[in-house]
Amino acid sequence: MNKLENLVSKIEKIHSLVKSDELSFLNAVVEKIEELKNKVNKCEIVIPLLGEFSSGKSSLINSLIGLKV
To answer: How confident is the model at residue 24 (pLDDT cuts 50, 70, 90)?
Structure first.
């Protein structure tokens, strides 16, 4: 299972737990989780990253995604 599939699986587990009747007071959280799940499935997560020149921004991104871009 690759990292993206693993992330989607974890989001789905959290979503099913929160969506249960016992936790219905978390409906706002359920909506946000559904939005996140849709964004992850579409690979459209936008994370702004700011910093000074040569401060390690690219290294951080590369380590987060597991690729050297």
So the answer is: low
